[in-house]
């Protein structure tokens, strides 16, 4: 018989704290480039480096993770963690950012020479994320200014002038609202609230707009969230229009849930719970093999992304956060049951009892498809963010339980 | 007991001709946009359209396929095939090509509005391929001029000025020789030889340079062909440097084999046979499940491409051409045995007895992973090119056999 998930709360907490410690040990031990600064992220199963390229997204994210741990988890309030975050931030401002254009490189060599720029805003967003959290940890005005300046550049690019995209960008691309942009901006403004609150206040209206844009992705009579829609919130034709990314939608769900809490908005809360979490989980879970699909087509066609049926670590990390937050907010056990389901799948399939951190990529059947712990898109971010948030929530839930007894 | 592959020659021929007919029927019946012109390529298992986006690579390639069939396979010398090729070429020159810049769109809407441009030369190369073959079929000077003009634009971009890449292109990217560029150019110049010979003559020196650049990808004491090397033919560090793409290398192998035949160059011939074909096949074949891996790392690390262990249709199409050509050139049975192995895997796993054409994407274990026949990267090209070339070679081999008896 399935154990009552409420009775498992201490077990979840213990496992999650244990994995968080191992995860941070792993990155601390293996990813620091003591010579050039910055972080290696192409790390094998045992932490050995299989490529020295440094990825802009992952540099900013690791700075954020270290600084957030320092700021919010007592046992990680260590000088060496703060110093590692500062060294990472220096690499970001000196090598990832082009000082003239503010454009950030997607990939640089280990010594910091640019290899590739993307025609998107994501590296720049993770730059803001890292810098703002580090300002809070270090109280150094330099990082605050870095965050504010880059934030205003991003908003300028999005609203006024996207020539940063490069001269092959095109009008027709811009008619599409993808879930990623408003999610990213909401995440940044939420981030500012706890680090540089005057900037959060400045962008309050933008945050509302982002929230509305995310809600505009709800389609087909409130039954589904689609990854791409038109700017007037109509379904787009073709694969792009039918695309679902369940992990991404569930992540948007917990963003919205936090925002609903802040605004005391019950309608938004219910939308987040019912559509972004419950309906999406129902649609995105692989009942045969377990795990969340990476991409689906709402009409059941084959997605054209070759990796559509793979199970990736990050959707599972996001789902753990989302369902635990939903349970904490509602105390409705059905959400804890979903957390339980994702927790068990994650610990069984992604965990590495030998070296710590999670594997990132499984086949549809749950077989490890790439045996590394970090790569061009997997760094020190989703796993520790999920584990630290879940640890905190589990403590809060259990404390609340004690107080109610 | 395994049947002697020489005894199977008539069986191969029969199956290949049968599949070629079904393949062309499939595209002819389902892919033509009678209203806007151009070809739909997002076609499901039964040919039904699941997306109306038109892809620049695949427009050029389908024009080439139709024109080549018209020019070289008697039963396809049909007026309706020539007309379909001409209509495709009109869509290419009117909608895929930007008349001011010559830059070709990677994707356009069904009515021809641009959606995306790539920072590469490939759409432009397939433009040349289609136009030059169609000139031969139609004898219309217009298509000849289109081919010549685009060819000279491509060479100008590659040699003098790559601002076409967009303003996010970067010096550091350019220090890498990827197998694709010299292969593509060699393919175009070879194409010119049979269609616009004066252009082939003009680019003779470039063709030699391309051949040398491809040979520069042979690394590690002549044991392996790597996808990316430096321009002075040294191994690059990291994943990029260690990357192998067996299907691509085998394709390069038959390009070299043709070139060796033209130049009467036995050393080149042996290099193509021993390294590009035999060694690569040995490294790239999945002994456990059958089929060629998509990507491998020469040191056995996990490639970072999520699809590394999938089995794609086109490497198998290329391997069929390569090993049959090798057998035809040498009459060494070991090459026919490899052809036999690839033929059997292909017909067993990729074929669709119900609707014709091949499926494109299998899991490592050989399960169909995407159930469509065409998509953003799979059109009317690799399958018919392989089948028409194999059909012709099988006829030649069997005729030769008869003459020798």
Automatic annotation (TrEMBL), chains A, B:
InterPro entries: 6-hairpin_glycosidase_sf, 6hp_glycosidase-like_sf, AGE/CE, AGE_dom. Pathway: Amino-sugar metabolism; N-acetylneuraminate degradation. It catalyses: an N-acyl-D-glucosamine = an N-acyl-D-mannosamine. Its EC number is 5.1.3.8. It comes from the Eukaryota. PANTHER family: N-ACYLGLUCOSAMINE-2-EPIMERASE. Belongs to the N-acylglucosamine 2-epimerase family. Homodimer. Forms a heterodimer with renin and inhibits its activity. This is N-acylglucosamine 2-epimerase.
């Amino acid at each position: 018989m399935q154990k009552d998930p409420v009775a498992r709360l201490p077990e979840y907490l213990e496992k999650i704290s244990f994995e968080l410690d191992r995860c941070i040990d792993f990155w601390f031990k293996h990813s620091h480039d003591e010579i050039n600064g910055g972080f290696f992220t192409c790390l094998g199963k045992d932490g050995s480096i299989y490529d020295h390229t440094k990825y802009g997204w992952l540099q900013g994210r690791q700075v954020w993770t270290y600084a957030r741990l320092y700021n919010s988890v007592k046992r990680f309030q260590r000088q060496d963690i703060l110093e590692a975050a500062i060294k990472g931030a220096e690499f970001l401002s000196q090598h990832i950012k082009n000082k003239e254009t503010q454009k950030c490189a997607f990939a640089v060599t280990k010594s910091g020479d640019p290899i590739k720029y993307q025609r998107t805003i994501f590296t720049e967003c993770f730059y803001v994320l890292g810098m703002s959290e580090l300002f809070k940890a270090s109280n150094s005005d330099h990082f605050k200014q870095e965050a504010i300046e880059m934030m205003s550049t991003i908003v300028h690019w999005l609203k006024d002038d996207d020539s940063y995209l490069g001269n092959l960008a095109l009008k027709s691309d811009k008619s599409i609202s993808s879930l990623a942009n408003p999610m990213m901006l909401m995440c940044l403004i939420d981030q500012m609230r706890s680090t540089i609150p005057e900037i959060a206040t400045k962008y309050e209206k933008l945050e509302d707009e982002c929230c509305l844009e995310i809600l505009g992705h709800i389609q087909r009579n409130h039954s589904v969230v689609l990854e791409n829609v038109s700017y007037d919130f109509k379904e787009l034709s073709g694969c792009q229009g039918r695309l679902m990314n369940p992990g991404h939608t569930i992540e948007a769900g917990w963003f919205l849930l936090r925002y609903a809490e802040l605004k005391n908005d019950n309608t938004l809360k219910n939308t987040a719970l019912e559509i972004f979490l419950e309906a999406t989980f129902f649609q995105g879970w692989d009942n045969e093999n377990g795990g969340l699909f990476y991409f689906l087509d709402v009409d059941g066609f084959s997605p054209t992304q070759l990796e559509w049926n793979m199970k990736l670590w990050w959707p599972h990390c996001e789902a753990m956060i989302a369902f635990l937050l939903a349970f904490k907010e509602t105390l409705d056990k059905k959400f804890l049951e979903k957390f339980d389901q994702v927790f068990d799948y994650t610990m069984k399939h992604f965990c590495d009892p030998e070296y710590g951190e999670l594997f990132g990529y499984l086949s549809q059947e749950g077989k490890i498809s790439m045996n590394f712990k970090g790569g061009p898109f997997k760094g020190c971010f989703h796993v520790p963010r999920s584990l630290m948030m879940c640890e905190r929530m589990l403590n809060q839930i259990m404390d609340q339980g004690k107080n109610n007894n």
